[in-house]
Design goal:
Bound molecules: alpha-D-glucopyranose, calcium ion
Strand content: 15-25%
Helix content: 25-40%
Oligomer: single chain
Strand order of the largest sheet: 1-2-3-7-8-9-10-14
Shape: globular
Structural class: alpha/beta
Low-confidence stretches: 1-9
Number of helices: 17
Mean pLDDT: 94
Length: 570
């Protein structure tokens, strides 16, 4: 896809002002940080994190340098799926705080220049939602048609489960309604029918509500399922136009709000979510690249990653990939070949209880990489240099571990570790919602923010520096890019170019040192300046640079000098 606007001028030139700062399309150069309010900080000692706690740590987040927070669901909920079972779309869970607390939080975030996006979980509601309660108890209620029913048990009742091994069916008998209802996820999460005009109207109202309270958009849960036509006798088909309608509504209400989709689909299908003209969703999580990133980290074979990057290269000019290492869910490897998946399991999750749903890994990043600082830096540096917007998960900035004693995905959802105090400084309560990690390697006594703050060599300070540098390299997320042909094959070298500047990022996935020769290209290509240390490289007579990389080494190199004078205005 060519990055040109209707006027024939590259989009970036239309959106740039004279000194090269972009005010629009903020998400293109954002750094997103994702967290759950309930596991971040407890302000009132009841053992559960809350908005007052989070608000008091906004300075920490602003200092880290992130520019946008993605809040996992904090709505009233029976919390049987960590809040992804919503019982009221227009509220704040009382244990997370009041509406007043939420608005104060939004105000503080705004003061610090932090944007906020919230999870929009509308593929299904909780079975405790008043809509479902009315739907099941009265067949004539308009709410009945909010959900998807069948009088007889449909043929595929035990097919298409998202949580195999835990979830037994997708159609379950409801004794009150005396019908089967459809649920793509757990049985307490009945699917809403977004193609019912009344439901669609409600969904828009929910979006409008949170936009009016100041959020900058939504992380949209389970989009491929949301847009599916549902029913026992309906041929499964996705209606992408629903996304266009939502986008229209979004932009009428708030011109710079975005939607970030969770849609783990193959590259050619992704284009349907962005829309050919970029008229559907602005952002999608890049699961395709994510899975191959872990394959490469596990094996040092860069070929599938290069392939995945190229396969997700084309997209409309305003569209953007979200690049991430871990999320709150299992690391889903379902789209690798069986051989590739086995290699990742071997390296990062050899024990059965580290694996989940026959396809994924339920561990945190640091334990997967054996707490090897070189590999943690390599993985993060890679994520920050992939063409897209980086999404950091809370706790990964200090290398938090997991607790495999907790069920399913909860293993990697433990409280943030602030200090060596009891419960990692998360709460003063005697008992807390979910225990903090306390093992000898990753426990809060050893891994916490307070200690790492004071240690200039800590992972926390490294992360802060890499975020600052990343924000100074908009060519990564705005620019055009290509993969440079380099040897050995364990090395990935990418060159990004944008607005008259260029950058090269090089990553060595092997556990041994190597020498890499590359051509920097462009008029200033005779010099490469290391952005992370005092180092400059000059090209040899043939125009090539010789780089010596350590095992798991990486470089961020500006093409040309840093102190290039500004071009005079004419
Ligand atoms: C998404 C969420 C996951 C949740 C599921 C059902 O996949 O990321 O945590 O369980 O949707 O809402
Ligand atoms: Ca609390």
């Amino acid at each position: 896809m060519r990055r040109f606007t209707g006027s024939g001028r590259p989009l970036e030139h239309v959106l740039l002002n004279r000194i090269g700062v972009i005010h629009d399309l903020w998400y293109k150069n954002a750094v997103i940080y994702c967290l759950n309010v309930e596991t971040f900080l407890d302000s009132n000692g009841d053992g559960i994190g809350d908005f007052v706690g989070l608000t008091s740590r906004l300075d920490y987040l602003a200092g880290l340098g992130v520019t946008c927070l993605w809040l996992l669901p904090f709505y009233p909920s029976p919390n049987k799926d960590d809040g992804y079972d919503v019982a009221d779309y227009y509220g704040v869970h009382p244990r997370a705080g009041t509406f007043g607390d939420f608005v104060e939080f939004m105000n503080h975030a705004q003061q610090l220049g932090l944007r906020v996006i919230v999870d929009l979980v509308i593929n299904h509601s909780s079975n405790q939602h008043p809509w479902f309660k009315r739907a099941r108890s009265d067949p004539r209620s308009p709410f009945r048609q909010y959900y998807v029913w069948s009088k007889r048990r449909p043929k595929g009742w035990n097919k298409g489960m998202v949580f195999p091994g835990v979830q037994r069916a997708t159609w379950t008998w409801d004794p009150v309604a005396r019908e089967y209802y459809f649920h793509r996820f757990y049985d307490f999460q009945p699917d809403l029918d977004a193609h019912n005009p009344a439901v669609k109207e409600e969904l828009m109202r929910v979006m409008g509500f949170w936009l009016q309270l100041g959020v900058s958009g939504f992380r949209m849960d389970a989009v491929p399922f949301l847009i599916e036509r549902k029913g026992s006798d309906v041929r499964p088909q996705r209606d992408y136009e629903l996304l266009h309608d939502m986008r229209d509504f979004l932009q009428w209400r708030c011109r710079d709000a975005i939607m970030l989709a969770e849609a783990n689909v193959p590259p050619d299908e992704s284009m349907q979510y962005f829309g050919d003209h970029g008229d559907r969703l602005q952002m999608m999580l890049n699961f395709w690249v994510n899975q191959r990133m872990f394959y490469t980290l596990a094996t040092a074979d860069t070929a599938p990653l290069k392939h995945a990057l190229r396969a997700t290269y084309a997209r409309p000019p305003a569209a953007q990939w979200g690049m991430f290492l871990r999320t709150h869910d299992e690391l889903d490897l379902g789209r690798l070949t069986p051989g590739q998946r086995a290699a990742v399991f071997d390296a990062f999750a050899p024990e059965p209880d580290m694996q989940l749903y026959n396809r994924g890994i339920r561990r945190r990043l640091a334990p997967m990489l054996k707490n090897d600082r070189r590999r943690l830096e390599l993985a993060n540096s890679l994520m920050f240099t992939l063409p897209g917007t980086p999404i950091l998960r809370y706790g990964d900035e200090i290398g938090m571990g997991d607790d495999l004693g907790l069920p399913e995905r909860y293993a990697a959802r433990t409280p943030m570790q602030w200090s060596a105090d009891r419960h990692g400084g998360f709460s003063t309560a005697p008992r807390i919602l979910r225990r903090a990690v306390a093992d000898p390697i990753y426990g809060y006594q050893r891994v916490n923010v307070a200690d790492q703050r004071r240690d200039s060599n800590s992972l926390l300070n490294w992360t802060e520096r890499i975020i600052r540098t990343r924000k100074e390299c908009p060519e990564i997320s705005w620019g055009d890019w290509k993969i440079l042909p380099v040897q050995p094959r364990e090395v990935l070298a990418m060159r990004y170019q944008w607005n008259g500047r260029a950058l090269i990022a090089v990553h060595n996935f092997a556990d041994r040192p190597c020498a890499v020769r590359l051509r920097a290209e462009g008029p200033e290509g005779h010099t490469l300046t290391n952005l992370l240390s005092q180092e400059e490289s000059a090209a040899d007579a043939s125009g090539r640079h010789l780089l010596h990389l350590e095992p798991y080494g990486y470089r961020w190199l500006r093409v040309g000098r840093l102190d290039r004078p500004l071009r005079g205005s004419s």
